[in-house]
Amino acid sequence: AMDSGVARLRIENWEQYEQDLLARVGMGRKIMNRITARAKAAPQRIIFAEADNLKILKAAQIVKDDGIGHPILLGNVQVIRRLIRENNLELDGCPVIDPLHEEERCAEYGQLLYEKRKRKGITLHDAKKKMRDRNYFGAMMLDLDLGDAMISGLTKEYAKTIRPALRVIGVAEGVKRVAGMYLIDTKRGVYFFADTTVNVNPTAEELVDIIGLTAKTVKYFDIEPRIALLSYANFGAGRGEEPEKMMKAAHLAKAKYPEMLIDGEMQANIALNVDLLKENYPFSELAEKGGANTLIFPTLSAGNIAYKLLQELGGAEVVGPVLMGMRKPVHILQLGSSVREIVNMVCLAAVEAQKMKE
Ligand code: ACO
């Protein structure tokens, strides 16, 4: 007879199952409340690189009013002032800077960018010109400690916004590639997905680095990562480049991080369904430890599509994209982030900035 996954799911103690389910509801909110409280404990200066946008200004208002941080607004001054006025916002005291009108600072910052990248094909003239772009200007402010964290994106393509940050700020010590993660708050609890935003087709070795960054970030939320490497096949059953890549990555990652709970390659439902795991793959440590809470995807397409489906169809609330591995806190919002999502990212960035200063 056909044996569907649902038919095989046996729940021995329904009462316990329902209690567990209830306990997990709203966990994402609780986690973010904790992060927000930490941010408020030592407010940081937040550079909003694309501030001539109503959602950003509304987020900045909350950041200011709630004592989360001190906004610094970059963008067209007239537009920013008009949006503030028309929407009855009150952002007095927050610096408003338009790089297009900051010739001296552009020259100074351009010189610094030139020093950093003169052997990477940039001319002094181009470096100065680049500073008229708010993302370069903001990144340089961050580099010079004229702010503690930068939030950008929302209006432009992700790739266009991350490049200036990569060129000016760069990666943290020991990090080869930055990567993006999302916290996904579902009705079954909180999950972490990576890489959802940066590396288009990471190699097995790059996936190992992504796993390292992701594990560190998950711990940041006071959660112990239980990591599954996903593919369309389970434990060697499938032929093809991606399952093999994920198998290799699992192998390498286990060797590199022996203390971590990592397994794969496996399908998403296997990773998330303890009963299926126990019944079919009892040898996996994840079977005993409650299944995975951290999912590593084989390609950017897979990760990006997965989280967006959950957000749109699954009704999940998401926190992200969390850019991992930068030398200083920089996060690039996705097109269409809500005000609440922006504030969440500010809180995260602020806590990161606090930690980096410690
Ligand atoms: N980690 C660390 N450094 C990197 C990375 C990385 N992942 N990628 C590039 N760099 C470095 C480059 O090596 C280069 O350094 P160097 O000039 O000092 O040698 C510097 O950053 C600038 O690199 P570029 O050559 O301009 O960058 P590249 O063309 O490799 O592009 C990018 C990098 C923009 C991240 C690219 O990989 C990309 O487009 N990724 C997909 C982004 C995207 O579209 N995401 C999906 C949507 S996001 C969302 O949904 C929220």
Describe the fold and architecture.
The chain has a six-stranded mixed beta sheet, sandwiched between helices. It has a five-stranded parallel beta sheet with strand order 3-2-1-4-11, sandwiched between helices. The termini are far apart. It has helices at residues 5-8, 14-24, 27-41, 54-65, 77-86, 103-117, 124-130, 134-143, 158-168, 204-220, 241-256, 268-272, 274-280, 285-288, 300-312, 339-357, and strands spanning 44-48, 69-74, 96-97, 149-153, 179-186, 189-194, 226-230, 261-266, 294-296, 317-324, 330-333. It is an alpha/beta fold. The chain is globular, with a radius of gyration of 22 Å. Strand 2 (69-74), helix 5 and strand 3 (96-97) form a beta-alpha-beta unit. The protein contains 16 helices and eleven strands.
Quick summary:
The protein has helices at residues 5-8, 14-24, 27-41, 54-65, 77-86, 103-117, 124-130, 134-143, 158-168, 204-220, 241-256, 268-272, 274-280, 285-288, 300-312, 339-357, and strands spanning 44-48, 69-74, 96-97, 149-153, 179-186, 189-194, 226-230, 261-266, 294-296, 317-324, 330-333. It has 358 residues and is of the alpha/beta class.
Keywords:
358 residues, 5-stranded parallel β-sheet, alpha/beta, 16% strand, 16 helices, 11 strands, binds acetyl coenzyme *A
Radius of gyration: 22 Å
Helix content: 40-55%
* Small molecules bound in the structure, each named once: acetyl coenzyme *A
Reading the helices and strands in chain order gives HHHEHEHEHHHEHEEHEHEHHHEHEEH
Which overall shape is indicated by the principal axes computed on the Cα atoms?
A: globular
Q: Give the strand order of the largest sheet, numbering strands 1, 2, ... along the chain.
A: 8-7-9-6-5-10
Compute the number of strand runs: 11
Strand content: 15-25%
Q: Name the average pLDDT.
A: 93
What separation lies between the terminal Cα atoms?
61 Å
- Label the structural class: alpha/beta
Instruction: Detail the poorly predicted runs.
Output: 1-8
- Helix tally? 16
Q: Sketch the major β-sheet.
A: 6 strands, mixed
